[in-house]
Specification:
Number of strands: 5
Bound molecules: adenosine-5'-diphosphate
Structural class: alpha/beta
Order of helices and strands: EHEHEHEHEHH
Helix content: 40-55%
Largest sheet: 5 strands, parallel
Shape: globular
């Protein structure tokens, strides 16, 4: 069984995250999309809201081998628990590269058997981030096409109330 983990904050999930999830789902028997419970990042959406939204997207998109769970603590511990040999991440600009390079070094140090693979963001989504979506949504901007359609209204309504 080839098992992958796609970790992130997903605060909230965007169409860019969905692209990566779809691509990764073709490579693995099971792909876990793992929502980090990280209070230091001060997320807008609770971990329950984020996982519930991602689960809706998985069903709507019919990605049968994707499973959404939340995790706390070290990613490599979660990956070991799930029997995963690969971590999946997305790369947009060079700024992502700097950050990913550091995280990769830490994860390699902790667990050299788990490898990280990277998918390049599609050009049309390379400037899309959860923080853009949060900012636009908060001020009532239209986020159609930036987040998966099945969770768009939930995200817009929630951001307006923020
Ligand atoms: P984190 O806080 O771990 O960076 P994010 O939810 O911001 O969590 O991102 C999770 C992963 O998805 C990261 O690898 C990030 O580079 C990638 N990602 C974010 N937005 C996009 C996008 N528009 N296209 C492709 N990958 C993306």
């Amino acid at each position: 069984m080839r098992i992958g983990i796609y970790p992130g904050s997903f605060d909230p999930m965007t169409i860019g995250h969905l692209d990566i999830l779809k691509e990764a789902s073709t490579l693995f028997d099971t792909i876990y999309i793992a929502v980090l419970c990280n209070s230091a990042k001060n997320p807008v959406f609770s971990v329950e809201e984020r996982t519930e939204m991602i689960r809706k997207v998985i069903v709507a998109e019919g990605i049968e081998n994707a499973v959404c769970e939340s995790f706390d603590g070290l990613l490599v511990d979660f990956a070991r628990k799930k029997g995963a040999s690969f971590i999946v991440r997305g790369l947009r600009a060079t700024s992502d590269f700097e950050y990913e390079f550091q995280i990769d070094a830490v994860n390699r140090h902790l667990e050299p058997r788990i490898k990280t693979i990277y998918f390049m963001a599609s050009p049309e989504h390379s400037f899309l981030s959860s923080s853009n979506v949060r900012e636009m949504g908060h001020w009532g901007g239209d986020i159609t096409g930036l987040v998966p359609e099945v969770i768009r209204t939930t995200i817009s309504e929630r951001l307006l109330k923020k």
